[in-house]
Amino acid sequence: MRSTLLSSEIAEPYAQALMSLARDNDLVDRISEDVTSLLSLMSESDDLRACLINPIFKAEDKKAVLNQVVREQLHPFTYNFLMILIDRGRIIFLEPICKQFQELVRQLKQTVLAEVTSAIPLSDEQQESIRQKVKGMAQAQQVELDTKIDPDLLGGVIIKVGSKIIDASLRGQLRRIGTRLTSAV
């Protein structure tokens, strides 16, 4: 709990600073794309993640790696922001900073994040149907879906929006039936 609190205390000011820079220069969408790309890259490359968060690697080495891997793909503001994080020894918080930035973008655009877990991949029509239901439920302008696959669900979906959870999975229905049967005995 303590490390999560510390992480959010550090991540929030940096995410706010990046958002301020993005808004002042009318680059929210572009920097948001960069942040999404960075998060994706970090989740796909354990080597990159290890290099950035490991204190054994020197700042110059981390900068050289980022220069080779992402320099050409990122907006100069985003790249310079990464260099500042390295200089200040805060690059280990890159992931929470990026996630906090994404949350700020959602707030700015009146978008909610719906975490959807299903047994099998959802079709485009199913995803759109979930978006429309969440829009109405959350009174949001837009809905961003974060989909995950969990074969243990057997069927159906679990939708989490903020602190609300809608369990429309077969596993959840079976659990509720079991609870009713147990309480009826």
UniProtKB/TrEMBL annotation:
InterPro entries: ATP_synth_OSCP/delta_N_sf, ATPase_OSCP/d_CS, ATPase_OSCP/dsu
Gene Ontology MF terms: proton-transporting ATP synthase activity, rotational mechanism
Task performed by this protein: This protein is part of the stalk that links CF(0) to CF(1). It either transmits conformational changes from CF(0) to CF(1) or is implicated in proton conduction.
Species annotation: Thermocoleostomius sinensis A174
Keywords from the UniProt entry: ATP synthesis, CF(1), Hydrogen ion transport, Ion transport, Membrane, Thylakoid, Transport
Similarity remark: Belongs to the ATPase delta chain family.
Protein name as it appears in the record: ATP synthase subunit delta
Keyword Cell membrane tagged: no
Bilayer topology annotation: Peripheral membrane protein
Localization per Swiss-Prot or TrEMBL: Cellular thylakoid membrane; Membrane
Gene3D superfamilies: N-terminal domain of the delta subunit of the F1F0-ATP synthase
Membrane-crossing segments per the record: none
Gene Ontology CC: plasma membrane-derived thylakoid membrane; proton-transporting ATP synthase complex
